[in-house]
Design goal:
By secondary structure, this protein is mainly α. The protein has helices spanning 2-23, 27-53, 60-80, 89-110, 113-122. Helices cover 83% and strands 0% of the residues. Helix 3 runs antiparallel to helix 4 (89-110).
Length: 123
């Protein structure tokens, strides 16, 4: 949960730049800003954090569904951007809803409520 809050806080300036560029008709720059920021986080910020903090354990039982969700979201985004990199209002709402579902899932995982849901489905 803390990582989600930090990620949101560091992404707000990127969001402002992307919105400004999109309003000026520079959708490519807006998209490049988002993709570049994420690539930087994956290839620089995470490794530096691990180098500073030491090792990091990965729970594959949690990581695999998370990566599948993020892969699905990425494929969905690029499928929606097939029209000259233009998102419609409906597509934008779909992506925002997907993000809300992702945040809800992370909150449930953080507080252990997903284990309760899994146990109730198994019974």
């Amino acid at each position: 949960m803390g990582i989600t809050v930090i990620a949101a806080a560091t992404s707000i300036p990127d969001a402002f730049v992307s919105v400004k560029m999109a309003r000026h008709g520079e959708g490519i720059i807006s998209l490049a800003n988002v993709i570049g920021s994420n690539i930087f986080d994956l290839l620089v910020a995470i490794p530096l954090g691990v180098l500073i903090a030491g090792s990091s354990e990965v729970d594959f039982a949690l990581a695999v569904p998370l990566m599948l969700f993020l892969t699905f979201a990425t494929i969905l985004l690029f499928a929606m951007l097939r029209t000259k990199l233009v998102l419609s209002t409906v597509e934008s709402w779909i992506l925002l809803l997907l993000y809300v579902l992702f945040i809800a899932w992370m909150i449930l995982e953080t507080f252990g409520d997903m284990n309760l849901l899994r146990e109730s489905q198994a019974a």
